[in-house]
Amino acid sequence: MNIPQDFKDMMEGLLYEEADAFFEAMARKPEISIKLNRRKLTDSAKLGYGELEPVKWCRSGFYLPERPKFTLNPLLHAGAFYVQDASSMIYETVVEHIIASSFDTGRYPAVADLCAAPGGKTTSIINALPDSAFVLANEFTKSRVGALRENLMKWGYPDVMVTSASVDRLAQVGPAFDIVAVDAPCSGEGMMRKEEEAVNQWSPALIRQCAALQRQILESACKMLKPGGFLIYSTCTFNRQEDEEQIDWLVNEKGMVPFDPGFPEDWGIMSGIDTQWPCFRFMPHHTRGEGLFLCVMRKEIDTIENAVSTPSLKAWLRKNFKLVADGIPREETKGALSLPAPEAPLAIDFNSREFSFADVDLPTAISFLRREALVLNPDVPKGYVVILYQGFPLGFVKNLGSRANNLYPAAWKIRH
User: Fold this and answer.
1) Considering only Cβ atoms within 10 Å of each terminal Cβ, which end of the chain, N or C, has fewer?
2) CA dihedral 113, 118, 124, 129 (to 10 degrees)
3) What whole-number distance in Å separates Cα of residue 141 and Cα of residue 79?
4) 321-363: per-residue pLDDT in tens?
5) pTM for this prediction
6) Distance from C-alpha of 371 to C-alpha of 408, rounded to nearest angstrom
């Protein structure tokens, strides 16, 4: 990795005697890690990757010794697990702590992830939420929305909406969310070990540009929080302009109150640099994962604002935005016909009693995911049939007897 000299000078100024250990860690191969979907799978052994080492700070996370061909594991497409950097999995633990410390049993929070694609942190949030919580996943960049929708449909949580909107437009709804997550667009210094593009695009000017954009997003995020609501701010970068200095601004200019999730020391997570606030840094010479900065803050409870109810929030979103997804679709209309939606079997609350099933072997499951026509066993009834692999639904075919037409979404098919 050809590290820019300006970046090297900056990190030496931040880390002092730890700088050499940091650069040594940056030269090592990235870790490979996955996260289980706690509503679909609790035993990592079922994935077929052997005995896996847990991620310290996430009960659903595991390290793999090497990178397999994830695409050829049907359980990935069933939404049973997600390939994610271990550092980012801290979102699940943070939200668990917020829910346990601040929400009564039976209270269902509304949560917004404002910079959500491709869905790793949104799925971590969903893992930590109680059933019946509402989740809005937003991604402004249109080219990234398709992957976000696909990943959330496969994750299977039903009470989710997906939008592709500017956060200032979303903020017009007012204080409607109990938790707002901002994994902000950043200069990407924490991804340099993993992505050559992060090295090539880096410059001090990019830091300034990202810091300005982050502040605009945070301005809107604060407006969207209910009194007493929580803001989770993170970046995958190391410089203080995009990290601790943004927290200073949130405290001093927006009146936000820092909240300490209470991470154990043996997790190896560093504290913030030159700050009095409870900020946290995942640094590759201390933790097994890529670089991540995180801080949790709370909006003062006694702000004079009338919170927007979740039903009113949903109605407002449906009225004002063209939704990329409004829950997991159960039916689709083709002409005068109402047909089962191809995404429906992936929902955790899918009504399996309405359809026949065919549990297939691995080669057949791969053929299905490639959107090829299948020939099912003669005892499988004709009509709409759910294809299962190891008991996990993958999608529909229409069984004609001599063959089964594949109804897997064309945009999702695997090509190798």
Assistant:
1) C
2) 50
3) 23
4) 999 999 999 998 887 778 899 999 999 999 878 899 999 999 9
5) 0.96
6) 6
> 3-state class of 120 per DSSP?
helix
CA distance 135 to 414: 28
Q: Give the burial class of 333: count Cβ atoms within 10 A of its Cβ; 0-12 exposed, 13-18 middle, 19 or more buried.
A: exposed
φ, ψ (nearest 5 deg) of residue 244: -60, -35
What's the CA gap between 134 and 112, in Å, rounded?
A: 8
Backbone angles phi, psi at 306, to 5 degrees: -95, 115
* Residue 236 known to be catalytic: yes
353 Cβ partners below 8 Å, 6+ apart? none
C-beta atoms surrounding 42 within 10 Å? 11
pLDDT tens for 124-158 read 999 999 999 999 999 999 999 999 999 999 999 99
Report d(CA 123, CA 176) in Å as an integer.
21
Which of these is catalytic: 58, 115, 186, 236?
Answer: 236
The token duo for 262 is 């209470």
